[in-house]
Amino acid sequence: MSSYAVPALYAVAVWWFSTGLIILLDHLPRRTFPWSMAGASLVLAAALWAVRASAGDASEAGAYTAFTAALLVWGWQEISYYMGFVSGPAPRACPPGTRGFDRFRAAAAASLWHELAIVAGAVAILLLTWDAPNRFALWTYLILWGMNLSARLNMFLGVRNLNAEFLPDHLSYLGCYLTKKPMNLLFPVSVSLATIVVALVGRIALADDLPAFELVGFTILTTLTALATLEHWFLMLPLPSAALWNWSLPARPKPTSLVITAPEPAEIGHRDAA
């Protein structure tokens, strides 16, 4: 069992710490953002190099490297978006009273460049791992992309827990694209499909006579998908999920300007950033 425990614990630790670090950086004063973005871009370059270097390494170390590198590439996507460097052609709140498809179009316009950057990242990793024995970087990135997109669509359609404390002040306009509802039709589909993926990938990881390289890689992918599925449940279940990253949130009172009238979009009042 220890052969599964180590990669699983590694995936949990890196997921937890990297998520908290991004939250921490996103809540720093805005004057720090150019420095954070510059550092993240250097890390991105190193991560893409590591993706290429690990693509031909069908060893346990290669699997760990591929996963970590892909997570760092994804981290750049998150930092560039939440710091406002890569957003969309119209990064602003939707006009009052906007509903239906018009609201979806406004949401797309607020983050279109971010979505295209994610696609570009996927293409880059695909090319760097093309026809190579180690493609765990690609699978990691695709899982992160798919589960992130699913979570954002669910929050757009309506969930119980919006976790507004994770949203930096300078992105308060995104509140109009979040909806508080007890359930939406996409959520059961999302968690069901994700659970099926966890089962299928986990079955591969548990196969007999699996090479150590694949055992590590598929165990990490199983754990990552399970964690992303758990994050989906955090959107609906009455659990204090924010407590997992309290260390990364600024020490300030809980926002009192969050006004939610279910099932309408949430309105998150803007506060001047430091």
UniProtKB/TrEMBL annotation:
Entry keyword set: Membrane, Transmembrane, Transmembrane helix
Protein name: Photosynthetic complex assembly protein 2
Family annotation (InterPro entries): Photo_alph_chp2
Lineage: superkingdom: Bacteria
Transmembrane segments: 6-25, 32-51, 63-85, 106-130, 185-206, 212-230
Keyword Cytoplasm carried by entry: no
Source organism of the structure: Methylobacterium durans
Pfam families noted in UniProt: DUF3623
